[in-house]
Amino acid sequence: QVQLRESGGGSVQAGVSMRLSCVASGPYVSIGWFRQAPAREREAVAVVTKNGNLEYGDALYADSVKGRFTISRDNAKMMYLQLNDLKPEDTAMYYCAAKDNAGAYTRADTYTFWGQGTQVTVSS
Q1: Contact 13, 85 (CB under 8 A)
Q2: Phi/psi of residue 122, each to 5°?
Q3: Do strands 92-99 and 118-123 pair parallel, antiparallel, or not at all (unpaired)?
Q4: Per-residue pLDDT averaged across 3-10, rounded?
């Protein structure tokens, strides 16, 4: 069982930066950030395997956030998502998610454990 808790969302103007945090407890194979905007499917934003080396680029990013968002972690329990140059289209509920099986790392339906989500709203 993995428990996840996000923090750090809010309402901001376009162009500013924000950092989301996720506290994770329990064993997992992969962990990452997903988001869901109203009337849209939940999508992967950035994911990394437990043993992935972020310094060597072992993370998967959605094309829409490459170069603007960065996933990082202090250890297996603390994960972050740095959001730079935010755009109105980044407005969504952001979730921290984890899974205990390998493969299909960007498919939301393969993730078993989810946080409660934190809202990010970007106005123009």
Answers
A1: no
A2: -120, 120
A3: antiparallel
A4: 96
Q: Give how far the C-alpha of residue 57 lies from the chain's centroid of Cα atoms, to the nearest Å.
A: 16
Cα separation of the two ends of the chain: 40
- Entry field: residues in the chain: 124
Tell me which residue of 33, 20, 10, 24 sits closest to 96, measured CA to CA. Answer: 33
Token duo for residue 102: 């390998």
Nearest residue to 79 (alpha-carbon basis) of 108, 54, 105: 54
- Specify whether the CB–CB gap between 33 and 21 falls below 8 A: no
β strands within the chain, DSSP E: 3-7, 10-13, 18-25, 30-36, 43-49, 60-61, 69-73, 78-83, 92-99, 113-114, 118-123
Here the tokens at position 83 are 């959001």
What pLDDT digit, counting tens, does each position of 75-100 carry? 888 999 999 999 999 999 999 999 99
- C-alpha 55/C-alpha 40 separation (Å) is 32
